[in-house]
Structures are given as C-alpha cells and as structure tokens.
Amino acid sequence: EGSDMEGEPLGDGDLDGGGVVMEDLMWRVEKLRLEEQNKKKFLKARARFLPYQECRKWVQAWGGRWETAEDWQDWIAMGEKRNPYIPSRP
C-alpha cells in the first residue's frame, strides 16, 4: 500500500524545478507577511477627518438637509453618511 516510489531515493531528475518551487513559496510567504503587516497598520490607524471648516462646507453643500442634531443622528442611523472624512458626531 502507498506509492510505488515509497522507500526509493529521489533521482537527480526529481529535483528539477525545486528552485522554482522554493522561489515561488518564498514569494508567497513574503506577500502574506506584507499583507499581515499592512492589515495591522490599517487596524491601528485612527480615522482621519477633514478639518472643521472643510466639514462645515460639506454639510452646507448639502443644502441645509439637517435642521437639528436629531436630524443628523436620524440620517446617520439610516446609514446615509457615506463620506468617511466627516465624523458621525461632529
């Protein structure tokens, strides 16, 4: 049971391309390491918001859609705030 090659030493022809496989494996490991590093950096990063004056211009450009803080909170609760640079609680 098992393969026909069990217990037989590898011949020289069996190692052809081993360097290519190892190179590919090293590339994949490095890629995963960099992706993990980037994910950690992203998760640690704080949100970046526009300066107050720029946020104010953005809100005013919406034409007075919100009259009160309650209107703003209702809009946020509906999931409508699509601009990641404007804080949900200005």
Features:
90 residues, mainly alpha, 3 helices, 0% strand, rod-shaped
Molecular structure report:
With 90 residues, the protein is mainly α. It contains three helices and no strands. The longest helix has 27 residues, at 18-44. The relative contact order is 0.09.
Radius of gyration: 28 Å
Structural class, from secondary structure content? mainly alpha
Instruction: Report the helical percentage.
Output: 40-55%
Number of contiguous helices: 3
Q: Please identify the oligomeric state.
A: single chain
**Taking all residues together, what is the mean pLDDT?**
75
Shape, principal axes of CA atoms: rod-shaped
Give the ordered list of helices and strands.
Answer: HHH
Low-confidence stretches: none
Number of strands: 0
Amino- and carboxy-terminal Cα gap: 71 Å
Strand content: under 5%
Largest sheet: none
Give the helix/strand layout.
Blueprint lengths: L17 H27 L7 H10 L7 H9 L13
Short account of what is shown:
The chain is mainly alpha-helical and 90 residues long. It has 3 helices and no strands.
